[in-house]
């Protein structure tokens, strides 16, 4: 085909020219193909003419041979020259002509076959040409539709560009207004912080002044009572030596004495006069004074009056040696396990959104209650120190609190914006701490169900523990952070070699156990805030970002589960691996719990299995 036509305009004349160009190209191709077969057609026509002439000559010869009376003079001079004189020559010539006729017939057949094939090809090409003409017509119509669509789209684009310009103007105005509001908010927040600081300073100063005033009033009242007591007349039935045995060092306290108290005391010791205070009355007076000082100290730290009673410490924990009970506890992966303070109950929770309570009786676990109310997977469970409540962290961005007298969620602590990975009770009654993947640690008032304080942390929080004075959090950025309960700043950071998966504090609150993704457990001395021991073992591998490791109840051992289902127990004092328990779990062990009695250990895994271990 000839070169492509030039680009056409949307007008009808251009489309007609394009069509004429295609038709002209097709006709040119037909002429070219016809010229290539013109020689064959002409040769075939000549052959047909020669064949007809030969048939005529052959017929005349055969007639003359059958009728010898035919005068040879009537023949044309040209034909008479071709007739031989002898029958043999005639027979030879006849055979020669017959061979030529046969060859010409064969050649004619081939040419006829070629002509038929060429006719078929021509018919096919004509059909194809018609199809192409129809297709060209359809393409013309499609081009018209596309041109119309293009025009509509162009109009829509122009309209959208106009709207975008208007929206851009509005957006610039809104952005400007936003910056103004943010500046006002920043100024207001700064001013509010200043006002808050001033109010705090005033409150502190007022409290100091009131304490001083109360102290002065109390001292004056006690001094007046002592003065009145010294002016009373009483009979003293004791010897001079007994009077001298009174503990007069108490008078060295910061108590203002009357001006004449020295003379009165001296006079009392010089003689057993009736003006001296009795020993029992003096001792009782100073006893009241010391009781006042004690009450005042307690009033300054009222939080200590609302703490849970200390749980009895385990004298000695026994290292588990065998599995005594195995069961499939949940419908999905089990993530959290905890013994009650009495060691009679075990709580488990997992991806099936249910917390199950198990009674430990006769070396077996008996399901006694199911706690429901979570909307997503449970990541950890915790008993309150009193054993009457259960706190669970969940992937539904909340923590749930149950009372053991009901199976519904008692309260839901909402406020996190991502998965809650840990929830722990504080030593103060009705308070708890949660850590989340939203990079916050929150303190809660469980009585009100309200957040008391939210601490922003630099990385995802995987676990938290609480001591009497600190909140300790473990993070994905391979650091352990200490937060003072009275301020929101971080007081200490301890780097480790892997992502922290769990934290656990010993009963004396002197050591911290951390498990991390570098396949190690570390014991941190809280007095010095440094790593004291690092536990490793062949075959131990931390299987997940929330794998939990714990101390034994007496703090002498550390236990953790491995990715291959084995349990490893280390001696905290020597750092030596005491025991490796294998064969009961076929999946990664997520967490372990050790009863406060030191008798049982419970382990859970990703294949819904719960195993009860004992040393007996």
Automatic annotation (TrEMBL):
<dbReference type="GO" id="GO:0034274">
    <property type="term" value="C:Atg12-Atg5-Atg16 complex"/>
</dbReference>
<dbReference type="Pfam" id="PF00400">
    <property type="entry name" value="WD40"/>
</dbReference>
<comment type="similarity">
    <text>Belongs to the WD repeat ATG16 family.</text>
</comment>
<dbReference type="Pfam" id="PF08614">
    <property type="entry name" value="ATG16"/>
</dbReference>
<feature type="repeat" description="WD">
    <location>
        <begin position="327"/>
        <end position="360"/>
    </location>
</feature>
<feature type="repeat" description="WD">
    <location>
        <begin position="551"/>
        <end position="580"/>
    </location>
</feature>
<dbReference type="InterPro" id="IPR019775">
    <property type="entry name" value="WD40_repeat_CS"/>
</dbReference>
<dbReference type="InterPro" id="IPR020472">
    <property type="entry name" value="WD40_PAC1"/>
</dbReference>
<keyword id="KW-0677">Repeat</keyword>
<keyword id="KW-0653">Protein transport</keyword>
<keyword id="KW-0813">Transport</keyword>
<feature type="repeat" description="WD">
    <location>
        <begin position="371"/>
        <end position="412"/>
    </location>
</feature>
<dbReference type="GO" id="GO:0005829">
    <property type="term" value="C:cytosol"/>
</dbReference>
<keyword id="KW-0963">Cytoplasm</keyword>
<dbReference type="InterPro" id="IPR013923">
    <property type="entry name" value="Autophagy-rel_prot_16_dom"/>
</dbReference>
<keyword id="KW-0175">Coiled coil</keyword>
<dbReference type="InterPro" id="IPR036322">
    <property type="entry name" value="WD40_repeat_dom_sf"/>
</dbReference>
<dbReference type="GO" id="GO:0015031">
    <property type="term" value="P:protein transport"/>
</dbReference>
<dbReference type="InterPro" id="IPR045160">
    <property type="entry name" value="ATG16"/>
</dbReference>
<dbReference type="GO" id="GO:0000045">
    <property type="term" value="P:autophagosome assembly"/>
</dbReference>
<keyword id="KW-0853">WD repeat</keyword>
<comment type="function">
    <text>May play a role in regulating epithelial homeostasis in an ATG16L1-dependent manner.</text>
</comment>
<dbReference type="InterPro" id="IPR001680">
    <property type="entry name" value="WD40_rpt"/>
</dbReference>
<protein>
    <recommendedName>
        <fullName>Protein Atg16l2</fullName>
    </recommendedName>
</protein>
<feature type="repeat" description="WD">
    <location>
        <begin position="413"/>
        <end position="454"/>
    </location>
</feature>
<feature type="coiled-coil region">
    <location>
        <begin position="129"/>
        <end position="156"/>
    </location>
</feature>
<feature type="domain" description="Autophagy-related protein 16">
    <location>
        <begin position="21"/>
        <end position="211"/>
    </location>
</feature>
<dbReference type="InterPro" id="IPR015943">
    <property type="entry name" value="WD40/YVTN_repeat-like_dom_sf"/>
</dbReference>
